[in-house]
Every structure is written in C-alpha cells, then in structure tokens.
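Title: [Solved] Alpha-1,4 glucan phosphorylase 3D structure

Original question kept below for reference.
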Amino acid sequence: MATTTKTEGSVPGTAKVPAEAHPLAEESSKIASNISYHACYSPHFSPFKFDREQAYYATAESVRDRLIQQWNETYLHFHKVDPKQTYYLSMEYLQGRALTNAIGNLNIQNAYAEALVKLGHEMENIAEQEKDAALGNGGLGRLASCFLDSMATLNLPAWGYGLRYRYGLFKQRITKEGQEETAEDWLEKFSPWEIVRHDVMFPIRFFGQVEVSPSGSRKWVEGEIIQALAYDVPIPGYKTKNTISLRLWDAKAGAEDFNLFQFNDGQYESAAQFHSRAQQICAVLYPGDTTENGKLLRLKQQYFLCSASLQDIIFRFKERREGKRAWKWSEFPNKVAVQLNDTHPTLAIPELMRILMDNEGLGWNEAWDITKRTIAYTNHTVLPEALEKWSQSVMQKLLPRHMEIIEEIDKRFMAMIRSTRMDLESKLPNMCILDNNPQKPVVRMANLCVVSSHTVNGVAQLHSDILKAELFADYVSIWPTKFQNKTNGITPRRWLRFCSPELSSIITKWLKTDRWITDLDLLSNLRQFADNEELHAEWASAKMANKRLLAQYVLQVTGVSIDPNSLFDIQVKRIHEYKRQLLNILGAVYRYKKLKEMNAEERKKTTARTIMFGGKAFATYTNAKRIVKLVNDVGAVVNNDPDVNKYLKVVFVPNYNVSVAEMLIPGSELSQHISTAGMEASGTSNMKFSLNGCIIIGTLDGANVEIREEIGEENFFLFGAKANEVPRLRKERENGLFKPDPRFEEAKQFIRSGAFGSYDYNLLLESLEGNSGYGRGDYFLVGQDFPSYMDAQARVDEAYKNRKRWLKMSILSTAGSGKFSSDRTIMQYAKEIWNIEACPVP
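Solution (posted by the thread starter after getting help):
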C-alpha cells in the first residue's frame, strides 16, 4: 500500500497552489485549489484538520462539480433534441466506489492524483475512504451498474431508476458462529455523489379503495400517501461529455403527517407512526417476507419504485411536448422505452395502465396498446422461487386498483387464447396470470410480464434457449418473435482498466492502442502474441503484483497469511445451493484429507493452492449459512495445520462487494463457476475473471458456454452434467439408482468425524442424501458431479506446474473476452429492443 507524505493532516486553506509550466501541473494546481475550497466552504467536519476522510469528501465534491455541469448539459441536450429515451427499472444497483470510476471516465485521474500529492495525500489512500453504496446484493445489481456505464459511454439517451436503501441488504461479519448480519452504514454520514432534487417529488398511494363514478370510470381513492423524493447520482461516460443519471427514490412523510396533538399528549410513538412507516420502505433491500407485514413491505417497495419512476417518466414526456404541435398519447412508445430488470418492477405494467386510464382518460384498448409497445422484460432466472408470485389477498389489500387491472389483463388474455388457440386451452392453468388455487391464490409476475411486454429476453444463449424450450414454450408458440437473447456483459473500464492498471498498460503496449477500452473486440489481437516470451514475462509480473496486493488485503481483513506463489483459486458470488459452494468446500476437504495422508516428500510434489470464498447468504437461508460456517470451520483447521498449510489454505473473505471484487478478481488465477447446469441464467463474474486472465473451472451453464467457445475449450476446465441430462439424473437420484463416488462419501464422512469442530453438519450433508428442501435427493447434483469435478481439479494441478502453458491460457482468456463487453450488450438492446440511437452532447 502507498504511504502518505509527512504533510498529511495540515489545513489546505484556500491559497493558490503555484502552477508549474507543464499542462498537467497547471491543471493539478487548479484542482488542488478547488479541493481546498470544498474543504473550507463545503465543510462537514470540524475545521483545522484535513485527514484522509475529510480529504476524500472534499475531493469527491470537487469531482462532483464537474459531473453536475456535464449532467446539466446532457439533460438540456436530451430535452432539446427530444430523442426516444430508455428508462431502466431495477431493484438493485451495485456501483462500487465512484471516485476512481469518475476520474477515470473523465480522464483526469493523473491530475487529481498530483493535486492530492500537493495537499499531502496519496490518491490510493483517499479512494479507500469511500464506502460502497449499498444498493444491491448480487449479479443483478452489478449488471445494472455496468449497463449504466455503457449507456453513458455510448451516448445513449437513457436513465436508471432504483431505490435509495439506507441500510442495504446487510454488512457481513464472520465469527465462530458463522455469518452475522449488521446494518450497512454507507449513509451513516452522507454520500457526496447524490444530489437531492427537492423539486422532484411524487405522491405514492397505498391501500384505499376503488371508487366508481356514475359514468363507469374508476378511480383509486383514500388509503395512505407517501412522497417519493428523488436523489440523482451522476453516471459519466468514458471520455465523453454525456453524463446520465441513476435516479434513486427515497420515501418521505410530510409535516402534516406528524400528529402534534398525540405527541403533546405523550403518545410519542403514535404521533410519528406514519413517518416510521414511510422510512421502512427504503430502509432495507429485500426485507424478510415470512410474515404478512414483510410481504406487504416488499410489495410496497416494488410499487414505490414503479409508481415514482413512471410518474417521473410521464412528467418528462409531457414537459418535452410543451409548446409543440398538438400531440397524442399514441406517441408515447415512440419516445419512451421502459426496461424491467427481472420481475421486481412488474407493477410498472398495471401502474402505466392505471395512470393512462384513470388520470389521463384513455380507454382500455388505447392504454393497453401503449403499455405493450412501451415495456420490455428481462428474465434472469429459471429458479421457481425467484419467479415472483404474490398473494392475491396481499395485492388486493395494498393495491386494489392494480388488482382489478391485472384481473382484466388475465381475463382478456384467456379469452384471446380460447378464441384463437383452442389447442392451448388445456395449458391455460399454467399460462394465465392468476393462479386461483383455493389454498394459495397468487399473481404470477413472470406471466404478467410475458403477456404484457413487447419483448422478453434471456441473458445468455443457453438461458434464452431454456426459456423458449421449457419455461415460456407455450407463449413462444403464440408470439415467436417476442423472445430474444441478450448475453450479459461487463464494463471493461471498471473491470480491467481501473482495477488492474498494470495489466491494462501491458495490453495497451502490445496492441499499440488503448481503443480496446471502448472496443473490447480488439483484445483478440493478443492471440498472435500468446507464445511470446517477453509478453509472458510482463504478464506474469502484472499478475504477481496483483496477487501480492490481494495477499496483503486478505491478511488485513482475515488475519490469514497466504502465499502469492500458490495457485489463487477463487469462488465469489451469492451463497446459494445451486451455485454449489458446497461442492467446492467438499473438494477442499477431500484435498486436505489426502494431504494429511501423504508424507512430507509427497506433499512437496503437489500444487500449492489457496482457495478463497466470498459472498453473502440471505439471512433466513439456513443451508446457505451452514455452508458459510463450514467453509470457515474448514479454514480454521487447515490454515493452522503445520503439516499442510504450506500446500493448502482455505479463506473466507467477508462482506463481499464491488470494492472487494476489484481486489480479488485481478489477483485470481483460477475461478470456480460450478453451478448445476441449466440453473445459472448467465453470470457476470465469470466474464470479469476471464477478462483479467483468470482460467475458469466450470460447468456448461449460463455464459460459461459462450466464454468457453470464445476463449477455446482447451483453455477452460470443464466438468459436470449437461443441462439436458439434469432431469434424468435427478430422477435416477430420487429412485435410488445413484451410486456415489467413494471420494464423495469419504469427504462427507471426514466432516462427520468432527475433524472441523463440534458443529453438527448432518442437516447440511443430508441435503445431499435425500432430504433436500427442493425435493427428494441431491437436487443440485453435487454428488453426481463430484468425481468429474475432482478429476478436473487434478488437471488444474498439472496445468499449473507448466508455467508457459498456464500463461498462454491466461493471455488467451483475456484475448477471448471481447464479446463480453456491456457496450456490446447495450448496443444490442438499443437496436433490437429499445429502438434508440446515440445522442451525444456537442
């Protein structure tokens, strides 16, 4: 880690810093003065000190000045040109640190680094003061943030909408008991990147009833109203003037909602109960929903996002019509594209219908035509529990008008099927939107999305094929052109250029251009140098530098010392049984047992390996939390075993987020993407690892299939059952036909022996033996794939011993990653779904 200069802590003042002759020095002097200005005149701390935290906030506000200027110019340009614009609705965004990304995209990182040196600080230390915005949990949020970066970089007229969660999902701590959850503190002080828009506020109604007028028109009345207040986070494009916005909504009650009479009567909690209910809406991402109150809160969040965003979209649409010739509502889909990122924003469909009919006076047919032409839906999963189904009674209670609209959409859809597709009538119970099962009547949100959207897309070719062949097959027979694939991508700015600058410089040197940062296909030109010894030496040096940084970080956060000369093997993602962290740790347990059985000379011949895990288990997901505990219990034994710990370490890196990923991914050499085939929609961390020259061990699942095609099958360690084999293998397992591999049984028995402590892991291990919560048997086929997995790991060990071969594989992994740029993905969305074009600020 870099060290600060001796002058750190001095007051910067507002005196001008002398400018040297060269342009960078002149620019950095101006920046230093601007940072000093913010330290003095945008104060958030006591005066007379300028430590790292204060320096971070002053620096961020200095950068924000530039972003606000560019944001204003972009907004005015879009308003003047009035292009068709995309509005991206997502419950999650995982932006990561904004400072390094902003100065990188603005191409002013050197000037800011030099300015901070003039003020007695190092950029690296200042950047580390920033806390990740806790606005998401997993791949859904990281994807959405990559997409915003690409939208801005491609100069597309686009806008993101989300919620401003005060406490995020949770902050993860690892103790002897396993995972512990505490509230995220990213807003404990404030975020310098958000700009509150006090003039952008919309009323959001809950509960109440539907009032029918004598003419038959319907209107939602009474209930309670909470205000949605806008906070804008500017998103700059890379080396472009365009700066778009992530608009986050916060929930707010008014002064009139505070009961002064009750307060003065000593009823303090009652007096402020409405304010408390308002604050609950944006308190936590995915609040527990085992109770009816929890379900109501989650549904409130989703509707709050959809209603506020659509009111804002419609306001802007009308604003841009002012002073123009007479316009019609039928123009709306020609100016507005709304993308639903998964089923969470599904309520945008009945909400747009409600606004058009009840507020704007349109008839059903016209409102339905506008809604269908406006809204598109991205599916991210085939997991049944992730395809949201909401209780009809909860929906009726919270959103009575929307329930009416959903019932009418369903009624008309079924009538259409019965009149035009009699062959599908027997399929209607599964195709309709409302499941009227008397035991548990629900609204199927995915079905509502498919029926109501003009386009439905999956996020990897395999995933999209499964959607068309299985999950939505009957709908495909009605609307064959509605379904598309849009393979996910990642932004090469954050995920290579900024997080691994040394490797990026090597790539630029050998390609003789840095245009690959916005045209990732150019990486394919690295293939011609894959055997070049000079490139091998430089590549190995950059990877080792990243491994050493990662080793320092791991020691800092876990207290475990790891050897940069060992193979760094990493699996970081949300903890879930289908992602099979359990397969990984069972493999580590077997490896440890075999090492213990070897003599000293035999151990010296093995490939030393450091296995790292990271990710959060949802607070109520018991088996996922057991997996976290098992990883840590295994690590506690292995890492302290003097016979073995030179050859094997097992580390759980806590509180996985974007900033942690920016340390782990550049330092990785092998990455595990080992989900049961057919269950991972895409994955994006696999793309990030591959882009950074990391070799993947994985199944033919999600985007792994396309990554393997692009980088070459000889550069991918493949194992496991294929997606089309999984149903048969599950049946065989259920029918007792599965014969477990002896190594699999040995690993489980070793855990049961108490080798890793006294915790009872029987319930976790029994999920592999016929007592899974997902059905009979080992639903995720851990036992089925275990021998194939261990054989693939043996091939990894051998390959790593051949340094020349491994470096070539690493270079070819990067060279084959061009397809997986979010710029490519977003350009396809723009052309094939949204029908929007670039609108660069002049």
